[in-house]
Amino acid sequence: MKLLTPETVQFIKEHLNDDVAALALHHKKNPCIDFEEAFTQISGFQKAKNKLPLLASNSNIRYPKTLSLEQCSSETTANFKAGIFKGSTLLDLTGGFGIDSIAFSKQFDKIFYVEKDPELCGIMEYNCTQLGINNINIINDEAETAILRAPNVDVIYLDPSRRTDKNEKVFRLEHCSPNILTLMPLLKEKASMGILCKLSPIADIKSTCSLLPSVTSLWIVSAKNECKELLCAIDLKTHHPTEPTIEAIDINNDKLTRFTFTFSEEAYAKPIYADCVMKYLYEPLTPLLKAGAFKLLSERFKLQKLHQHTHLYTSDILQPDFPGNIFKTEAVLSFNKKELKKHLPALNGCCLKVRNFPMSVDSLSKQLCFNARGEGDRCLFATTLSDEKHLLILGTRQKIS
Asked: Looking at the structure, do residues 287 and 184 belong to the same domain, yes or no?
């Protein structure tokens, strides 16, 4: 890790909130300032302000190059996964910027952090000193080599790289590095309690389970309704169940919403389909849609589903515990030109969403001459009812305490 001159440190402090591109164009030449490293630190701080508030609050933290910072877990999701297992020792085979290891260090007595990039190892060692963390052992090595040399531990954690040597994005397990499928026999031999893997949020859940048949639990984790991580765990202390438990999780500030189910429960659920839109309209959280809990939501919350392929629900009795957005129905509109012309002035500025509908938001906005917002409390859904009729539903978001 590069040592920074006092002039470089001062330059960083003076320009922490400035536009990096503009700084790069207009800075005055100074041989005492390492501008390349200064721009890396300023850019890193700006990315960390929301993603990693604990680190950003410490002015002495050093940041890596952009890619490592983009790929690391957020502080929110790292803290969530750190609560899945507790034990004495944990081996993190894919250390990176170290956000996950830092979170795990609060739950385990000793962490073995493995990272093949010596620069990231240096940054991790420095940052641990600044944060007062002394139970992380830093190992500069390849994951495949480190696992052979490592002692037996309680838990092993992996977050395989989803980039090729040519910087191309991949998400299939066999294309990620390290290859979990190849390492799995050795991982099971080295870990006594469990194995936890972080995978791409776009990975198919059922395919993942077929490739890793010993998985006992899966979590689809979102932050403020944006899917961030797919986590899968193998609990080595528990008898392997016939199928894994799936949890859809959304973390929104201090509020954690979760929905737990199995593939069998979803397969055997019997939803009721709606003949019309009732007083309330329900939109599931994004991780629920990713998890595929479609029919089960109708059954568990006594809601009527609008259509087999329309993942919106309705009821006349409010179900305040529903894991998603709840709207009070203001109007249900057909695509009759006279009816639309009458209501369109009041719709401008609403959030427009399409669900099981043959047009995109942009195409529909142009056809309706409708000025839609990205988000808001008033939302217009273009969708399809169980009789295959297309309609528009205007709703106002309900604030449930």
From this structure: no
d(CA 306, CA 383): 9
Cα–Cα distance measured from residue 130 to residue 277, given in angstroms and rounded to the nearest whole number: 57
Distances from the Cα of 254 to the Cα of 80, 251, 283, 333, angstroms:
12, 7, 21, 37
Task: Say if 150 falls within a structural domain.
Answer: yes
Confidence of residue 142 (pLDDT cuts 50, 70, 90): very high
pLDDT of residue 270: 95
> Tokens standing for 84?
């899945």
For the beta carbon of residue 265, count every other beta carbon within 10 angstroms.
16
**128 token code pair:** 């641990």
Residues of the chain by 3-state class (helix, strand, coil), percent to 5: 35, 30, 35
Same-domain pairing of 137 and 237: yes
Answer with the residue of higher pLDDT: 6 or 162: 6
Whether residues 194 and 312 share a domain: the answer is: no
Report if residue 22 sits inside a domain: yes
223 and 113, same structural domain? yes
In this structure, what DSSP letter does residue 177 have?
B
The set of long-range contacts for 138-145, using a CB threshold of 8 Å and a minimum separation of 24, is 138/95, 138/113, 139/112, 139/113, 139/114, 139/115, 140/115, 140/116, 141/114, 141/115, 141/116, 142/116, 142/178, 143/93, 143/94, 143/114, 143/116, 143/177, 143/178, 143/183, 144/178, 144/183
SS3 382: strand
φ/ψ region of 349 (left if φ > 0, alpha if ψ in -120 to 50, else beta) reads: left
Say yes or no: 140 and 208 in one domain.
yes
The answer to whether residues 39 and 100 belong to one domain is no
Domain residue limits at 45: 6-51
* DSSP secondary structure string for all residues of 68-99: HHHHSPPHHHHHHHHTT--EEEEEES--TT-H
Stated pTM of the model: 0.90
* Whole-number pLDDT of residue 401: 67
Residue 318 sits in the same domain as residue 252: no
**Residue 372 domain-assigned?**
yes
Let me know whether 273 and 245 are in one domain. no
Degrees to nearest 5, angle at CA 202 with 197 and 208: 50
Structural domain includes residue 60: no
